[in-house]
Amino acid sequence: MNKLLALTRIQLKDFFSKYTQQLNIKNKFLGKLMIFLPIFILLPVIQIIKQLYDTFLLIGYPELIITYVYVGATMLAFFMAIPLVISIFFYSKDLSLIATLPVKEDTVVFSKLASVYVYLFGMGALLFGTSVGFYAFGDGFNLFYLLMGIVALLFLPVLPMIFATLVIMPFMAVIGGKSNRNLMVIIGNIVLLAVILGIQVVFTRVEMDPASLQKMVSQQDGLISLVGSKFPPSIWLTKMVRGSLLDTIWFLLLNLGFVVTLKLFAKRLYKNALLKYNQQSSTGKKGVIKYTQSSKKMLLIKRHLGIIIHNPTFLLNTVLTLFIPILLFGIYTAMGIMSLETLRNPMLEPFAIFIFIGIIVSPSIVGSLSATAITREGKAFWETRVLPISAEENISARIQTTVLINGFATAALALATFWILPLGIIDIILALVASAAAIVCFATIDLIINIERPYLNWSNPTAAVKNNLNIMISLISRIVLGGLGYGLFKLVPDLSSRWMLGIFTVLLLLVYFIGRKLVYGPYKQKFIDMNI
Fold it and tell me: Is the model's pLDDT at 510 over the cut of 90?
């Protein structure tokens, strides 16, 4: 037990130090203050939870907020746990050190999961903790509800964290010795997400059956069962918070069962997965040396593409963010919430061009690839310093790589959606021009952010592309430019959609040329002077 506590303490200290280090803020006080940044980002979500609570309170079932938010928070925690488990166990680069310690395999597994627990607990505190607060204080203070809600919050990360571990570790063990294991990681994770979402869709369709709906609502605790039927532990938890001893026992036994299961299989998981899938070992595949003439720019672009393709975390994050509209549309269509006829609704025709541009430009809005173009290289950044290339070529290759990736995603989304919406040929051309302007604009200003705030000494891939303040800053730039476009709409509401899109395209190009002047001007010298 002492070894477990000591190793857990080391892992947690390492987690918090790396978290503030990943934000890349030199001021220590400001770095600690930035830990609370997610609170400000999730303020709109908290407002939504408040509105949901008010709605449930009006119909006389305020406890539904506990069920509803717990289901959502658990699903979100599971999806967050997948890349965290992969990153912390298989790409943290501390396996060679931990393997020499006189500790058991289950001690290593649980100590590493401690940092995952803290991460998921923070997310749960912001979402589920908010719902507990509204429920305990909303209709008069109830100390019992508050205490039981805190107990539920403490257990919230356990199920998704251990379930993700029990699924991911055997999968990584199977592909550990494969030569194309990185590709299999991507395919496996996408299939896993598809299966989970498919199960959700099946349950949702069953609930939407009128006969089942009426029968369920007519029963005692029918609404709670309706909301939590996709995830029965949420029903036990809700009744636990309300004081049901039997449901408290069921909920605690479920969590204990998951912990014991992981304890029993920890040794086998450690040996079969961690030792087999060693990120520092070679897969044994022999390469072929080819001598072909190619331009330096093309070689640099291939290098940056290779950094993304050959790292499962980078590739999975890139693919999912580039095609978010297709994923959402597929999910909503399967659930019966949306269909192609929804987009063809005549009432949406005046806004069709804006819907189209919003869909095809989403890869540039959400991707923020240039904001981590330098960071993704990590300590390998020094390689470009010794090559016979100029700073201009180095910088432009990074921008062009982002333009190439986002351009491909935009073209794919345009081909998939232009025939659905009621658009004319001029509308499509204007939207494509505007999206091209957005691609080069965001690719350029995002690289300025990365040059201003480089972070090369990251400990795992997740730290490079997710837990990074550069991503948040780049998203703020999108919000500012989007606010300017909305302000134009409010100032001149009678302006046609084509003219409005044309003016906004000119604004994007203006920002691009300013950014280009900066990146090849003062920021070129900053790039040259960057410390490795």
Answer: yes
CA nearest neighbour of 39 among 131, 122, 128:
122
Phi, psi of 421, deg, nearest 5:
-85, 150
- Alpha carbon of 12 to those of 7, 28, 40, 158, 269: distances in Å? 9, 18, 24, 17, 22
Give the 3-state secondary structure of 50-117.
HHHHHHHHHCCCCCHHHHHHHHHHHHHHHHHHHHHHHHHHHCCCCHHHHCCCCCCHHHHHHHHHHHHH
Residue 35, token pair as written in the block: 């830990």
Tokens of 466: 């997710």
pTM for the full predicted model: 0.59
Nearest 5°: phi and psi at 104? -80, 165
The region of weakest confidence among 102-111, 323-332, 504-513 is 323-332
* Single-letter residue type at 489: F
Q: How many CB atoms lie within 10 A of CB 406?
A: 27
Q: DSSP readout, 276-319?
A: TS-TTS---PPP--------HHHHHHHHHHHHHHT-HHHHHHHH
Three-state secondary structure call for residue 454: coil
Q: Determine the residue type at 100.
A: T
Helices and strands, number each (H, E), in the chain: 27, 0
Within 13 A of 36's CA, how many CA atoms are on the CB side? 4
Question: What b-and-e string marks burial along 12-45, b requiring 16 or more CB atoms within 10 Å of the CB?
Answer: eeebeebbbbbbbbeeeeebeebeeeeeeebeee
With tokens 């199960």, the residue in question is 199
Helix, coil or strand: residue 138: coil
Using an 8 Å Cβ cutoff, are 427 and 498 in contact? yes
Contacts of 388 (CB under 8 A, 6+ apart): 296
What pLDDT does residue 439 have? 94
Q: What angle do CA 256, 257, 263 make, to 5 degrees?
A: 90
pLDDT band, very low/low/confident/very high, at 444 (cuts 50, 70, 90): very high
Residues for the chain: how many in total?
532
Percent of all residues in the chain with a pLDDT value above 90, rounded to a whole number = 13
When pLDDT is cut at 50, 70 and 90, the band that residue 220 belongs to is very low
Answer with the residue of higher pLDDT: 42 or 520.
Answer: 520
Task: Name the residue among 261, 241, 227, 297 with its Cα closest to residue 64.
Answer: 227
| Buried/exposed code over 88-107 (b: 16+ C-beta within 10 A; e: otherwise) | bbbbbeebeebeeeeeeebb
Token code pair at residue 145: 């509800």
